[in-house]
């Protein structure tokens, strides 16, 4: 029996269970997101390769060729790619996720399902792009003769941290976007700034020692540095940075999901 | 467990946001100067208490803005209550806005899966019913084409077919019977009869009163967020119709835009009179009737044009005016009445409403417009049988000869 009252329910664990019950809808939504992303394109899913590849070429010319940025004694394209991949997953998921609710206003106003499925589907579609582009990174590693080590497995917990963070940020921003569409406009700027505050184009050691602690509060720093260490340096990630990154990401996830669930039922009235 | 709904004191309050008035500026202003009076707000639903048991079919009628859609939104769990308590046993399925979940780029088949899972179907259920759904929609040839290539009729047909095979325990339907061509509509109605025979709950909100009467035994007559009447369909419908006719005493007419006054001329009331010369809500087929308009014209109106239109199920079915009938009155002044007599009622059994338009016969400027000012029901005399299938509104007034 379903009991509907005006009381709010903030038990996130219960919400996750309900979400799990709707896994078939989630799968359908992911399918819809992915197939509509590349429907009626000539190159199709190849765009998942082409976009990062082109970015790497352009950025290598500018930041390595002209600006001569160091890259921890690694080939710059490889160094850049290892940072750019997890960043792209984050930024694409956030950008597409922000409008995921407002794009489906019709559905939200008419039918109930856990609303977080919509931003989650955007996230999953970006994750799929990430996996495809990852093959490209591995091909680059083979080309540049980087040995594969067991430390590669560290990438898995690092990516879980990134997914928690992405989910939290997307939930929060997509929710606010329903009330204030300003978020759609501001997100591009915010992500650009965030990108330059994350060691993607440059190595972390370029940041002065005194600022590094504050710098590390950006949860993406731990993620990018950790992913890079695990993948192309063959080293375990720096635990201090990663723990900070995990704590902040988890906090953002809790706040984002909690607020989302708190305001979920007002969506149909506002959207 | 038996399917059921129990509602106690449901209330839904909206703070109205005017378009273009949202955003930071407004909320800042609200923070700085909290003035509750300046916030327009509305109780879309107020004090709804009812219980619905399995096997019941409930019709919901009332003027626009009565709260019908809001009630459905609450029942389908889309929006939250402001007050009250609601218990629902069973899966709720809404047939509102068919095809809302469709994605234009995906094929019909893919959209069946998508839309089905949005409506709460399991994948396995969809797979087992897939052929049935496609056959019902009559879209076998186009099922693998993207739905953006579909005509709007095909789109709606696919939407209805998915929803029709959902078979929820509690079905909410908001005015969607006009899907596709007549053959498809007939199929929909047959499907609904089948649904009604199963032990489930059915809710239908509609302006098409004969659909309500055909499908629902119990009716909620809603007005301004409240259930004014909850009981047998026939009583609820006649109450609604008589309210339509005598709404003039209430201010709500202006709000709903049903009445427009552009000068000193006022229609006091419009009423239906039967062959016994008494005001009536019901008229029998083929018996005489008249529509009477009582007016007050404190200033003399010269060369007025009087027009009467009759509507059925929200559509105009006919009209008459004093100019094409070549009987324009010279002028109207003071209090008086206009009678429009029908030697015999040529309408088929159903519910009808009347619109009255008074305008200046020269400039054609409206003086007084009153839509749906009165409603009446046409009854079948004993032994009267309509043509089978889809009824039309007119009983063609002709005389048969056999030679």
Structure characterization notes:
The complex is a heterodimer of chains A (271) and B (403). The radius of gyration of chain A is 20 Å and the shape is globular. Chain A is mostly helical. Chain A has 13 helices and one strand; from the N terminus they run E-H-H-H-H-H-H-H-H-H-H-H-H-H. Helix content of chain A is 73%, strand content 1%. Chain A has one domain (12-270). In chain B, the strands form four sheets. A six-stranded mixed β-sheet of chain B has the order 5-6-7-3-8-9, sandwiched between helices. The N and C termini of chain B lie far apart (66 Å). Chains A and B meet through strand 1, helix 2, helix 6 and helix 13 of A and strand 4 and helix 3 of B. Strand 1 (2-4) of chain A pairs antiparallel with strand 4 of chain B, so a sheet runs across the interface.
Secondary structure layout plus pairing:
The complex is a heterodimer of chains A (271) and B (403).
Chain A lengths: L1 E3 L7 H10 L1 H16 L8 H20 L9 H23 L1 H4 L1 H6 L6 H27 L11 H25 L2 H15 L12 H7 L3 H15 L5 H25 L3 H4 L1
Chain B lengths: L3 E12 L8 H9 L8 E13 L3 E5 L6 H8 L7 E7 L2 E3 L13 H11 L4 H15 L14 H13 L5 E5 L7 H16 L3 E5 L3 H7 L2 E6 L2 E7 H13 L6 H5 L2 E3 L4 E8 L8 E3 L4 E14 L1 E9 L2 E7 L9 E12 L7 E11 L5 E14 L24
Helix pairs in contact in B: 3-4, 3-5, 4-5
